[in-house]
Amino acid sequence: MKFQPDQLPGVNVISRHEPGVVWVNAQVHSSSVLVPWRGNVLPWTLTRFDALAGEHLDPVLDLEPEVVLLGSGLRLRFARPAVLRSMIERGVGFEAMDTAAACRTFNVLATEGRRVVAALLLEQPEP
């Protein structure tokens, strides 16, 4: 017995992910993106995790999420507390995980009707 729909109308779904690439609603993205629960997928200027600064989160907050999932790339990394200050001050939930885990978690939360944004750092694997 299913308890929830596979997809809610108008809700973004991450249909596939590989290192350095993500498919949202069957559209391919190969650079970092912001995926809101509804609306357009937006480019994200972050290209390296060690460059993450507070201003990278301003466009995330403009989407008015209740929770943000930071896909930190190919491995789990945590943002410095100072970077998260604006989120903390606004009472926005925040979770860091590798990008693959953030994609899976986004789909669960979005189909539950949560106002979630996935901020996904898409890194290319090293040869």
Average pLDDT for all residues: 91
CATH topology: Hypothetical Protein Mth938, Chain: A
User: In the CATH classification, which architecture applies?
Assistant: 3-Layer(aba) Sandwich
Q: Percent range for helical residues?
A: 10-25%
Unreliable residue stretches = 1-5
Spatial separation of the terminal alpha carbons: 44 Å
Largest sheet: 5 strands, mixed
Number of helices: 3
CATH superfamily: MTH938-like
How would you write the strand order of the largest sheet? 5-4-8-6-7
CATH class division: Alpha Beta
Query: What class would the helix/strand composition place it in?
Result: alpha/beta
How many structural domains in the coordinates? Answer: 1
The coarse silhouette is globular
Integer-rounded radius of gyration: 14 Å
Order of helices and strands: EEEEEHEHEHE
Task: Count the E strands.
Answer: 8
Q: Tell me what portion of residues adopts beta-strand conformation.
A: 25-35%
Architecture overview:
With 127 residues, the protein is α/β, with parallel strands linked by helices. The protein is built from three helices and eight strands, in the order βββββαβαβαβ. Helix 2 (85-90) links the parallel strand 6 (67-71) and strand 7 (93-97). The longest helix has 13 residues, at 99-111. Mean pLDDT is 91; it is low at 1-5.
